[in-house]
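Record type: ASSEMBLY
Status: queued
Input:
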Amino acid sequence: MNERNCGQGSAEGGESRSLSAQDGQPLPQAAQSMSAGEAYISKRRDFIKGAIMFIPAAGALAAAAAESPKADAPKTETPTAETPRQEYNPAEHLYGMGIQIDRCIGCNRCAVACKAENDVPDEPVFFRTWVERYTILRSGEVSVENISGLRKDPVHDERDVIRTFFVPKLCNHCANPPCVQVCPVRATFTTQDGAVIVDSSRCVGCRYCIQACPYGARYLHPKTNTADKCTFCYHRVVKGLQPACVEVCPTQARIFGDLKSKASRLVRFERMNMISVLKPALNTEPKVHYAQLDGEVR
Amino acid sequence: MNAMLTDHYAELLGQVMGYAYPNEVEIQWSILIVIYPYLTGLVAGAFILASLMKIFKVKELQPTYRLALLTALAFLIVAPMPLLMHLAQPLRFYEILVTPNPTSAMAMFGFVYAWYLMAVLLIEIWFEWRHDLITLAQTTPSPLKWVYKVLSLFSTDTSPAALAFDAKAIKFITIVGVPSAFLLHGYVGFIFGSVKANPWWASVLMPIAFLMSAIVSGIALVVVVYMVLQGIRKEPIDMPCVDKITSYLFYAVIVDFTLEALDFIHRLYQSEESVNILGHLITQKLFLSLIVMQILLGMVVPLLILVLAKARNFNEELRKLLYFTAAILILIGIFAMRWNVVIGGQLFSKSFRGLLTYKLEMFGIEGFLIALVVLVLPFPILALLIKLLPSRAVVEHAAPVHA
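Status: finished
Output:
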């Protein structure tokens, strides 16, 4: 989209720049011989004219700025789903995700988008990502529901509730992944850029990885009969796009980024928040980091 | 997705008590994975019983030595079947052998199995039966004659030197075989014990508990098979032999019971994060299979029976009955133990907030009927093996080999 706008701007802008150069110069001299009223009208006309000229000219400049490096260095090209980024080098990246609990409004768009993007079965027992709702009651009791597959909403008396919040869950893409350790055929592996993915053409369907995952992030896909899980939308990420769940999140509760890039929003997220991970005692070293994570969350 | 599956998932979801991660609702390791460690346990136990006789020269066990070896072989042949049938992509099983992941405990299965079958059990059986096979190849009419010739690998040397070598080879293989049997089953325990995500499994005691229960179940199986076989043959049961085996059985059950109790007390005393959900698991999901079947019927009652049979001077008939009952109960108890480990470990959520349900289907590849077939299949194989390889030495002078 951006690219197309820039292109149009350049065609119009080129023309308008030449017009302004022809008409612009004699104007100040002519203005001197006019009456005050005429001068005012003329000034106003000039201003409007200038403004009309300025907008396409700015477009032209922007186009020139966008176009000139494009010709020399292709790396600033804005990638789209159709045009894969040239020479993607996984060694230059290390992906992770930040989740700001207090931004999640439980709209569940992430889980819906994930199912649509990744061909996850509709049944509420298969999720690559889902959202949990925690309700902490005055009695100390904790009520948890998966709102992405909710059948009936439990009703709590508002006066009994101390706090409530949503927790988006997904594969933690552990740096020390138990699933990769136990896979007997190396069908599941960690990519150089940090995503833990499954090669469904190699998976034998023994389901040891599902047992080994402490986060319940894996399931056996009923169509492929192989283990399936979140890939950080790897097919999108390598094209410079965001994972589907991040793309659709209306509150930016999910922040995806490159831990190796200093300019990454994820690194900013890491700098600005107190971070925790799920089940740290298991030493899986998750790359999904939570801000404002409640101690009740497992 | 077909409507039946959708209903199935909805039913499972409806049976979740508390909260479970959504992907956990479907139980992944079914009855077939319960049978797999049960079968390998029987193999390891039977082999270890046979080895006792060879290594410690326990003469009383002579009548069951060959039977124990054949039992181990029959069950070992069937052992990989449930694993293979359980794979969601069974045609890709060879990948485990061709491109194994060195960090995966499960990837070692092929090698441990092959080592145990090829390098231990088959070689020991061949040396043990070699003399008999040569004799049978000479005395039986064709075409069976050729079967024996092939089985004896066309060996014909029955000189005293060759027989002495057989005996030496058997001794050597037994010495290698005992740690191999430990490896075979200890390794199965490790598959479960090393899963840190699952507090019901993750225990350093798991391989040892599996091993001891394997020995218990293997010995009990040999007792049952021997008593039934003698009944079929209408031959008397060698009571000193059965007395001796059941003594070993008694000690093995005591050790096994101690290990299980230690594990239980340790968990209770440490009282980690998972202790509450495991408590609910035991009281709400595993009460029948753990408290009643495994501990009460599978351990306490057989122990009492064995104590009774040893302490009192009962007559042979009553002793036989008591031994047989104890052995059957132990076999059921160890099966319950495998069930409680494999299925029990999947009946609670790793969020420690909910319990799940396993529904055993009647039909289908992971159903009850197939499971029953897999469990029973070793017995016809054993019958065939006994027919082919006589469980008593054909040649009398083969006796010194056993000494």
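Annotation: The CA atoms of residues 94 and 147 of chain A lie 30 Å apart.
Annotation: Chain A is about 35% helix and 15% strand.
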